[in-house]
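Example record

One chain of 234 residues, shown exactly as stored in the release files.
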Amino acid sequence: MNRNLKHLQSELGITFRNSDLLKQAFTHSSYVNEHRIAGHRDNERLEFLGDAVLELSVSEYLYETYPDRSEGELTKLRASIVCEPSLVTFAEKLNFGAFVLLGKGEELTGGRTRPSLLADVFESFIGALYLDQGLLAASSFLRKYVFGNIPTAGKHLIIDYKTFLQEHTQQHSMGSLEYRIVDERGPAHEKQFVAEVHMDGSILGQGIGRSKKEAEQGAAAQALEKLDVSIEIR
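Predicted structure tokens for this chain:
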């Protein structure tokens, strides 16, 4: 067992029964590809599982916590919690990036702080915890480290601008939306993406972010501002 991962378990107050699952959760594909160690697995499958566990646990929490909210409001709240920027925030608060096993190339290009990598590791950890100790343990972890950060006043952690824009354009039969990544700027370890959102050949908005998803959210936010659409969750 990686000594750092023992430290992480101590910090979180969690002890894995199967230490290999925990190690796999923090193993990036670049490390596996570079070391070619027999039986060594990356975290991509755990990420897939963790995403589903996260969706279910968040849905249950919101359902119980906000009994007066409609399905649409709960859907938007859930989207704000499970989106990449929020997952990155949770991973950074837990210092997950420090424990990831990376290949040399990924390490040199700043992979340890890459938003998409951090979001994936957070989901992978949830998947590993679920397999090791069940849904109750995964939900307990989320209640301690995630749900406590959800404001009870009803504001989002992160507003899902893409969902709001999609709903607005569909409701008013405005046309089809298309997102395009039109530029990539900066060195590999500090790359920024530029996204545009188009509708019927016209540019509605443009956004810049550390990941493609973040850039698309920025483009949607600008489009909503241009369309003078107010966003409010009651």
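Notes: The chain has eleven helices and three strands.
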